[in-house]
Amino acid sequence: MFHPANSGIVEVMTLITTPDDDGQLIERLKAGDQAAYAEMVDAHAGRIYHLALRMVGDEAAAEDILQETFLNAFRAIQSFEGRAQLGTWLYRIASNMALMHLRKKQPVTFSLDAPAENTDGDDLPRQFFDFCCLPERDLLTDEARAELFAAVDDLPETLRVVFVLRDLEGLSTQETAEALDLSVPAVKTRLMRARLALRERLSAYFAHSTISAETGGALPGAVSPQPDARL
Amino acid sequence: MPDLHHPDEAHRSPDCRQMLSRLSDYVDGELDEALCRELELHMAGCENCRIVVDTLRMTVDLVHTAPAPDLPEEVRTRLYVSLRLDPYLKRK
Q: Is residue A66 helix, strand or coil?
C-alpha cells in the first residue's frame, strides 16, 4: 500500500487534528497499520464521495477525488496533529481537490467572482406551505431526502459550491470565503440564495405529498393557499 | 403579500424583502441583537415571513442531520484496489 514516508505533504493537512476518540486510530495509522487505513476508508469514503459528487457533479471526477483524497491523507498522516476530527481533515482535503478540479475544468466560466448576488426577484419565496409541523415520519423519509439532495444538485454551481462547503462540510462563513476567494458578504448572499432555493423546492414537495396523502383534504399545517403570494 | 404589521410597529419593521436578506444570518444565530428583535417583530405580524423563516431553518436542519449515503459498491471496490487495501474489501 501507499506508505506515508513516500510522499510530500499537503500543506492544509498540518493545520488540523482530532479528539481522543480518533487518537488510537491515528496512532495506528502513523504506525503504518493497514487495517487502520481500511477502517479510516470505511468510515469516511461514503461521505467524501458524495461531497465530491455534489461539488463537481460528475461521478468519474468524484471517484478520482475520492481516491486522491485518501492517497494524500496517507502521505500526510505523519503531520496530522489531532486538533480537529479526522473526518474534518479528510473533508477539507476533498473539498480543496474538488475546487481545484472545478477551476481546472472551467478556468474561465468557473469564476468564483462571477456575479451571483443579483436579487432580481427570482429568489423571492413563492411557497408558503408550513412543513415544519409535519410529523417526523413524513419529514425524514428517504424520498424527502432524495428530493432535498436533488435540489442541491440542481443549484447553479456558484451557489452549490458555497452551500456544500458551508452547510454540508460545516466550514464557517470566513473559511468558505477564504476557500473560494470570495468576500464574506458574497458568501452570505450565495448561501442565502441556495438555502432559499432548497426551501422553495422542499415546500413544494411537502405540499404536494401532503395533498396526495390526504386526497384533496385541507392541508394540515398550511396557511391558506396563496398561489400568488410573494414576499 | 398582505401587510400584517401591527400599526404601532409598522414604521419600525423592515419590509419583507429587507427581512429576506437577513434570514441566513438569523437562522445561523449570527444576526446582531437589534436586527433580531426587528426581524422577530416583523414576523409576529407577517405569517408568510414567519413560515419562510421556520421552513428555512427546517431545511438547513434536514441537510445537517441527513445520514451519509452509502458508497456505491463498485466505487468502493475500485477505491480499495487503488489504495492497495483490497485484502480488507470483504469486511463489509
A: helix
